[in-house]
Specification:
Blueprint (H helix, E strand, L loop, with lengths): L1 H31 L1 H22 L2 H6 L10 H28 L7 H26 L3 H25 L4 H30 L10 H7 L1 H25 L1 H15 L5 H13 L4 H34 L6 H32 L3 H26 L3 H42 L8
Length: 431
């Protein structure tokens, strides 16, 4: 755990830089226009839904491997990455084709394309990050995160702040320039990641084999992304870009509460997978759950009191007042989501991903059914109500699955000890 603690510091620091730059862009777009922000977040949500289907749990599966022959090799990495890159290009070209054909007449179409491209770029970066975690190159991963955050998000915002005039057009051009530079950085990142791995061309595993090995993790990730991103897409289709922009601003604000999870999740999964025994993994899960619960309770309480203080200033527009009320309950949803993480990661490390997959797919299905009905009944409050209810139900099911897995492992250990004693001829106490 000492090495884990040392790795957390630079990774969390890089997360603060990356998430801070992301939020600066979201705040800037929201300041210029909620419709402009809604178009960007709509494209980003579509990209996240598509990229999770492309990855399909491969990155998480790689975190359970080692960086040698029989584990994650350079040949495997390059083949899988080439297929991901090709599929990402196909979906971006398809969206541009739809825009050019006139089938999509919503405002700021290029902002949607920028959001979609950003999501695809980050998906490819995550693939390289998986290699960095497998090879324990945590400082290098942290450095690349910070650089990409500054190039993709901070630079366009800085240009808008320093310039005047037609800011809507300027931010769009600067985002496109940032994406171009980000692609150049990604090319170097891919080369560096491939050099970390051993060259084993005799390994013939490609995308199909990797997808088969990670199919339950992929379905699990698909359920999570649908659960988080689909409400924004549905809200944009039902209430328009302005409502999607306001809800997206609230959603991104609450994401700051758990910004450390982007790194800690990968570190926990890697450390769980390298643990000496299932019982040790279970002890780590219980400890991480208690610590997470205490931190989230403190964070939610602080946000609630802080937002209540801001509301009493009574100098906000109607949209911002609605946003403050949404923020309080969105914080509850993100706190419950954070509380799930140690349980989810522990079950995955114990190769119980099928149970996790079933729970998250059930949560996503309930959300897809309930969100449109709740939006129709409660307007912009619909996704928040659905999120809180689904997260509470998922936690109860995960706790039940963890207890079942724990009893099963203890029963297996007792049975192995019993047969080991019989095989060695150990005497048993007579009654």
């Amino acid at each position: 755990m000492g090495k884990l603690g040392k790795a957390v510091v630079p990774l969390v620091a890089s997360d603060i830089v990356l998430q801070g730059c992301r939020y600066a862009l979201v705040a800037c777009l929201g300041y210029l226009s909620f419709s402009l922000l809604g178009s960007y977040l709509f494209g980003s949500a579509l990209g996240a839904l598509m990229t999770v289907a492309i990855d399909f749990g491969i990155n998480q599966h790689w975190l359970r491997l080692h960086s040698g022959v029989g584990g994650l090799t350079r040949h495997m990495f390059t083949r899988v990455l080439a297929m991901k890159l090709a599929l990402s290009c196909v979906q971006i070209v398809a969206l541009v084709g739809v825009m050019q054909s006139g089938l999509w007449n919503r405002p700021f179409p290029m902002m949607m394309v920028s959001g979609l491209t950003m999501a695809n770029l980050h998906a490819l970066v995550d693939t390289c990050e998986a290699v960095g975690f497998v090879c324990h190159r945590h400082r290098f991963v942290a450095l690349m995160r910070a650089v990409l955050g500054l190039v993709l998000y901070a630079a366009p915002v800085s240009a808008v702040l320093l310039a005047g005039g037609a800011m809507d057009s300027l931010i769009q051009y600067m985002l496109q320039a940032g994406i171009f530079v980000g692609l150049l950085i990604l090319s170097g990142y891919i080369w560096m990641a491939s050099r970390m791995l051993v060259d084993a061309p005799e390994v013939t595993e490609g995308c199909l084999s990797a997808w088969r090995a990670s199919r339950w993790l992929g379905l699990n990730q698909l359920g999570i992304v649908v659960d988080v991103r689909a409400p924004l897409v549905i809200l944009g289709l039902m209430l328009g870009e302005a409502a999607a922009g306001l809800y997206g601003l609230v959603q991104r604000t609450t994401a700051v509460v758990e910004l450390a999870w982007a790194s800690i999740s990968k570190l926990l999964l890697k450390s769980y997978a390298e643990a000496a025994s299932a019982r040790l993994v279970q002890q780590h899960i219980l400890y991480a759950s208690w610590v997470t619960g205490a931190i989230m309770l403190f964070g939610m309480t602080a946000v609630w009191f802080g937002v209540r203080y801001l509301e009493r200033l009574d100098q906000w527009s109607e949209d911002m007042q609605t946003g403050f009320m949404l923020l309080r309950w969105a914080t509850v949803a993100i706190g419950l989501s954070s509380l799930k993480r140690p349980l989810v990661l522990g079950l995955i490390a114990l190769h119980r991903e099928r149970a996790v997959c079933a729970i998250n797919l059930l949560s996503a299905a309930v959300g897809l059914v309930s969100v449109p009905l709740l939006i129709w009944s409660f307007g912009i409050w619909g996704p928040i109500i659905s999120a809180v209810a689904c997260e509470m139900g998922a936690i109860l099911l995960l706790v039940s699955s963890f207890r079942t897995a724990r009893r099963g492992d203890e029963a297996g250990i007792d049975l192995a000890s019993h047969w080991g004693a019989r095989a060695t001829g150990s005497p048993r106490r007579s009654r």
